[in-house]
Structures are given as C-alpha cells and as structure tokens.
From TrEMBL:
Residues 1-18 have a biased composition (Polar residues). GO terms for molecular function: ATP hydrolysis activity. Residues 1-30 are annotated as: Disordered. Residues 60-190 form the ORC1/DEAH AAA+ ATPase domain. Signal peptide: none annotated. It comes from Paenibacillus pini JCM 16418. This is ORC1/DEAH AAA+ ATPase domain-containing protein. InterPro entries: AAA_22, P-loop_NTPase. It comes from the Bacteria. Pfam families: AAA_22 (PF13401).
Length: 346
C-alpha cells in the first residue's frame, strides 16, 4: 500500500512540475477567449455548412438573448474553413442598427466591422465601390467564390437596409461572387419574414431568409455532458501542451481520473431543483452565458489558482456557483405569459 501511495505522490509531483506557467488573468477561462461546441452549436454548424455547399444566399438564426448566439458565431468563424477545407472569407457585422438612415453610414459600418483601413474615406459612391471591390477580391481568392457575412442583432435591420444589401448582392453576383448572409438575432427576427411578405418585399425573403434555425440553450442532460466534456478533453492551453482546462485548474484530481463531465447528472438536477424552488415556468433551458459562467466560477474559486484551492469540486460548490451566475434572477425577469419584449436596438 505504501508503494502505491508513493507512486501516486510521484505522479502528482510530476503533474504539477509540468503544469504550464501561465500569468494570472491570461488563461482563456479568465479572458473568455475560447469556443466550445455545444450540441446546439454543432447543429447550427452542420446547417450552415450545408447552406454554404448549396449556395443558399441567406438564412436566419434566432433565439432569445443570452443563449449563446454570439458564442456560436465565434465558433463558426474559427471552424467553418477547416470543415470546408477552404480559406473562406467570413465577417461578423456587429454595429448595424435601426437608426442608420443613410447609405454612407451603412457602408462605413460594414467596412469598419470588416476591418477595412479606409472605411471612412471618400463619398458614398466611392465607399460603395470600395466595399464591392473588397468583397470581390476576397471571394475571388477562394474556390467557392463565396463571402460569408454574419449580421448580429439582425432584428434591428429595416427594409431600406435590406434594399442596400440586395444591391451589393446583385453587383457581386454579376462578378460571379456569391454573398451569403446569415442573419442572427432575437425571436422578432423570425416575425420579420411575415412582415416583409405582407409588405410585398418578397425579394428580401427570397435572397436572405431562405432557411431558418431556432437557436436554443442547454436543455438536456446530454447537452450538459457535451459542454463539460469540452473542458475535460477538447480544450487545450497553451496549444500543443496537452493541458485541458480541467487539468490545468485541478491537476491532481485530473491525474486521479476526475472529470467535470461526471457532474452532468448532478448539475441537471441542481438546475431542475432551483427552477422548482423558485417556481420558474416555461421550457427548461440554460443559457450558455450562465453555464459557462458557472464553470468559470468553479474553476477559478476552487481550482489550483484560487486563494484556498481544493483537490476537487463538491455538489455544494456547483450550487453556489450556479446561484452566483444570477440564473434565477434572469429567469424570473423572463415572464413567459407576458408579451415578448423587444430589446432596444442600439
């Protein structure tokens, strides 16, 4: 028995000796500069990959706030090119809003969010030509001859904005470049299709709302397990080090075979119990923001870098961490029996 303990101690010592030396505050868990493929994100990933291969020129992805849509876009930006085996130009447009009434400002926003060096130089016609030339250059450089735009908070777009986008689409189409728009937004985005059809704006639907996907949060035990498994196995920092996020924060426990994914059932039960205790109605759904925040709190408050590190995590630690994410308060504010409130567009 003594020999076994000695070997375990040697193993733990070796594990700690090879642990990466990462400055405090710079690990991806702390900076939140990482993406993990939840079940729902993988579904969207498959759908968007299919849309690109079929050259579907536009689609909507909609869902309530905080479910992880922005997290999803970041994952797609990083992984679509690898999946398609082509250096696909992808732009994430985040600054468009309903108060843009002039095409010049619209063009400036697009160019700026795309990282163009001369977004604010020249007249409207010059900026328009600059945008088309920029997108043509990028589209012409890949064998798909496609440029992909994710437009965030797309429920804020007005009919006039879509008319400008159709003009850019048509100009690029004449150059044999396909502009694909993925409109990402809240649930109001789904209703815009009906509004446009009643307003005889079918050209918008036929160009940019051909397909749709309702984005949902974490709903099942399996969803939770997939999420946690990413921290155990699919995450790594620094790159090539072999140190997953779980291993870095709990090296001894990880060496002993402990994994976050083993808490999947307990976490599902904690959320279920909390919903019952606070009389939360509606579909069981954990927004990605609250799930990743609970995991972050567990890793930082109880892991190796904390002021009072623990060997491993307890169920009580999970309960405390989930409550600290303000999940209950957030769900209480969402009254499923009331008229859905539209968040103000920026």
């Amino acid at each position: 028995m003594a020999k076994v303990i000695e070997n375990q101690q040697d193993s733990d010592a070796l594990s700690l000796s090879t642990r990466p030396d990462i400055p405090l505050g710079s690990h991806p868990v702390e900076t939140e500069d990482y993406q993990i493929p939840t079940n729902e994100i993988l579904k969207v990933f498959a759908a968007v990959t299919r849309w690109i291969k079929l050259r579907v020129t536009g689609a909507t992805i909609y869902g309530r706030p905080r479910l992880g849509k922005t997290w999803m876009v970041k994952f797609l930006e990083k992984n679509l090119s690898k999946e398609l085996e082509v250096n696909l130009p992808i732009h994430h447009i985040v600054s468009l809003h309903s108060k843009i009434a002039k095409e010049e400002e619209f063009l400036e926003t697009l160019l700026s969010d795309m990282g163009h060096d001369f977004a604010f130089t020249g007249k409207t016609s010059v900026k328009r030509n600059r945008l088309i030339a920029f997108l043509y250059q990028q589209g012409n450089a890949n064998r798909y001859r496609i440029v992909l735009l994710f437009i965030d908070e797309a429920q804020c777009l007005e009919e006039l904005h879509y008319e400008w986008l159709i003009d850019y689409y048509n100009k690029l189409d004449k150059l044999n470049i396909t502009l694909i728009l993925i409109l990402v937004g809240q649930e109001q985005l789904n209703g815009q299709q009906l509004v446009f059809s009643h307003g005889h704006a079918d050209q918008i639907i036929q160009r940019f709302m051909i397909e749709e996907h309702k984005f949902v949060g974490i709903r099942t035990l399996e969803d939770i397990k997939v999420c946690l498994k990413c921290y155990d196995e699919l995450s790594e920092y620094p790159a090539g080090s072999g140190w997953s996020f779980t291993r870095y924060y709990f090296p001894e426990a990880f060496a002993a075979g402990e994994r976050l994914q083993n808490f999947s059932k307990e976490i599902f039960e904690i959320f279920t119990t909390l919903r019952q205790k606070y009389n939360l109605k509606g579909v069981f759904e954990i927004p990605m923001k609250h799930m990743t925040m609970a995991i972050k709190i567990v890793l930082l408050d109880y892991g190796k870098n904390s002021s009072k590190p623990q060997h491993w995590i307890s169920k009580k630690n999970w309960v405390d961490s989930i409550l600290k994410t303000n999940y209950i308060i957030s769900e209480q504010r969402k009254n499923p029996n009331s008229v859905k409130q539209k968040r103000e567009c920026p």
